[in-house]
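Technical note accompanying the year-one report. For the benefit of new consortium partners, we illustrate the data format agreed upon in the data management plan: each record pairs a sequence with a structure-token string. No post-processing was applied to the example shown here.
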Amino acid sequence: MGSELVQRYAAALGARDWDAFAALLDDDVVYRLPQTGEVVRGREAFLRYNREFPGAWELTVLDAYGDERGGVLHGDYGVGESQIGVTVLRFAGDRVAEVVDYWPEPYEPPAGREHLTGR
């Protein structure tokens, strides 16, 4: 089940299928970006964060693994250029309860998403 949930998460996110993506998320999902210190709390805020993310980004799954507790997604999150990242997912039953994205380099958060994130 875990690997399938990771694949469904990646497919919905990559296709920008926001209804399918929302159906995978726990109401109280928490999204963390250690490099910027940002935290997004709740399904609606996390959906909005992804809908409003600037640029013509694409997601190509390189590897995906999971079990009943969570999973790992290794992907190319292209935002104009290739950016390899690792996403760690933690599950609550059949929903994604926590997402942590790791990027190779720290960066300052882009302006314009303060209304969705805390630090």
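Partners are asked to follow this layout when depositing records. The first helix runs from residue 2 to 15.
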